[in-house]
């Protein structure tokens, strides 16, 4: 009876048990950088937050030991989550660790984050086991710890393997599979595109070229060469691109490069377009006319020495046209950036042209060529489409 009375007097309690795993973002960043627990503790002890906390804990408490234990616990969790992060879509269904949506996004985005200097070194390499073992050189050159270099190499390889046979937008495919932001997905898309098409980026001549340069060049090619372009579209977009280049210099020509195409295959370059470029040899046969029209356009545009352009026209015109005519071959396409630097950018540097002067010349050169090809709309469109990308790349690689 007494037991029944006692039970009746007990209050009803609604209990909710949550198992959300706490994610310390500072410790996570140290883990991603590749620091050991000991190294991470040393870094954490220098932070204002830990020092403030250390000032209020009881005397004789070993602050270093407490921080080390906490850091070790976090590292254990991160290593457990690492396998799940290789397939980010599984993170929301992970049973061992329940993680808030906000922290899921942080974990994924930071895990797949790329250092531009590391990405630049990896772009020119095959994603082989041998090159993974040789990442010590990348670590020494970039100052990024080896563990972090390996993580970034593995992530690039994982993304590459996932989307290499994708047809359609690389950015969309990467976002879909790896739940990354648009900005980070675009970085991976540029890397995948350059690797798939085997562009040469590791020659000594290109040592000065940054990942940002390659990124902008890659998306210029993706946007304009990956699919057939009609004469109407080419003429319209070319005029806008040339106008933007003249008005804004490199900021307008390269910084605004973006891929907005829908339902297109970004993994390769349109073969028919490259073959059509062979017919541009007619411009080489009409070099005097091309020169005359270019100088005429320069006088209208201003901003570039007509005398200098006249004296060096052949030196710049020949390689620009020769590259176009041979671009249908695998070797010439692969060596595009090397050829542009050796045969166009280097001669421009001797002229000491700034970005505006170079942009103006390329615009006049493009317009003059279009006038000569006016009787053949398809070839004119191919020329404008070719020069649109070449202008962006040359300006980007100029580094005035």
UniProtKB/TrEMBL annotation:
One term under GO cellular component: nucleus
Annotated InterPro entries: FIBP
Domain of life, source organism: Eukaryota
Transmembrane segments: none
PANTHER family in UniProt: ACIDIC FIBROBLAST GROWTH FACTOR INTRACELLULAR BINDING PROTEIN (PTHR13223), ACIDIC FIBROBLAST GROWTH FACTOR INTRACELLULAR-BINDING PROTEIN (PTHR13223:SF2)
Name this polypeptide is given: Acidic fibroblast growth factor intracellular-binding protein-like
Organism: Hirondellea gigas
